[in-house]
Specification:
Blueprint (H helix, E strand, L loop, with lengths): L17 E7 L8 E7 L17 H14 L2 E7 L1 H7 L1 H14 L7 E5 L10 E4 L7 H24 L5 H4 L5 H10 L10 H6 L4
Parallel strand pairs: 1-4, 4-5
Antiparallel strand pairs: 1-2, 2-3
């Protein structure tokens, strides 16, 4: 339900029943895709919310703490590597978003989703292209999702040393691709992604 939002100024971002949703980890070759949903509290504003990719790691961490403290509701959810390989990354990301919104307490009356696609759900909702830099609640969700996923990839580096997960967070950098060729495919790599599939000898 919903259509692409063009007139962003017509939306009351300060209302207490609007959730913003975003995901982190669609492009990497390894790890879960993580989504977050946030309902901000108009009485407890947070300065500096913007697209998480435009913030330093330290600033993201600081804002994530404020979001968890001040938001009326927030939730983080995921779709696993197995679900990514079974469904494809787009559908897995939409599934993670659905899980994040479904877990919010209280539930939102309206949902804005970063991007141009919506999950299949009953919520009144709309996609917002570039929403993580235009809608505060989406920016907050972007920050929570990225902080959560980055922390998980740092933890994966300890479980699977040598791949460099802590540095590249699973993205297909030259160092990551070389590690894959040297060490082989780990249990947390996405086998449906072309560079991994190629190493496994699949077409």
């Amino acid at each position: 339900m919903g259509g692409l939002v063009d007139d962003l100024f017509s939306i009351d971002y300060g209302c207490s029943d609007l959730a913003g949703v975003d995901e982190a980890g669609r492009g990497p070759l390894a790890g879960d895709v993580v989504a977050a949903a946030v309902i901000l509290d108009p009485a407890r504003p947070i300065d500096g919310l913007r697209d998480s990719k435009k913030l330093s790691a330290a600033r993201r961490e600081a804002l994530a703490r404020l979001i968890r403290e001040r938001a009326l509701a927030w939730s983080v959810a995921r779709a696993s590597v197995a679900e990514i390989d079974r469904l494809n990354i787009l559908q897995a990301a939409l599934l993670a978003m659905h899980r994040a919104v479904h877990s919010l307490v209280p539930q939102p009356a309206y949902v804005l989703v970063d991007g141009n696609r919506l999950p299949r759900w009953h919520y009144a909702s709309a996609p917002v292209i570039g929403g993580d830099d235009r809608v505060p609640a989406i920016a907050a969700a972007s920050i929570l999702a990225k902080v959560q996923r980055d922390g998980e990839l740092i933890a994966l580096e300890r479980r699977y040393p040598g791949y460099g997960f802590a540095a590249h967070k699973g993205y297909p950098t030259a160092a990551h691709l070389q590690a894959l060729r040297t060490l082989g495919v780990s249990p947390v790599h996405r086998r449906s992604f072309a560079p991994v599939k190629k190493l496994l000898g699949q077409t």
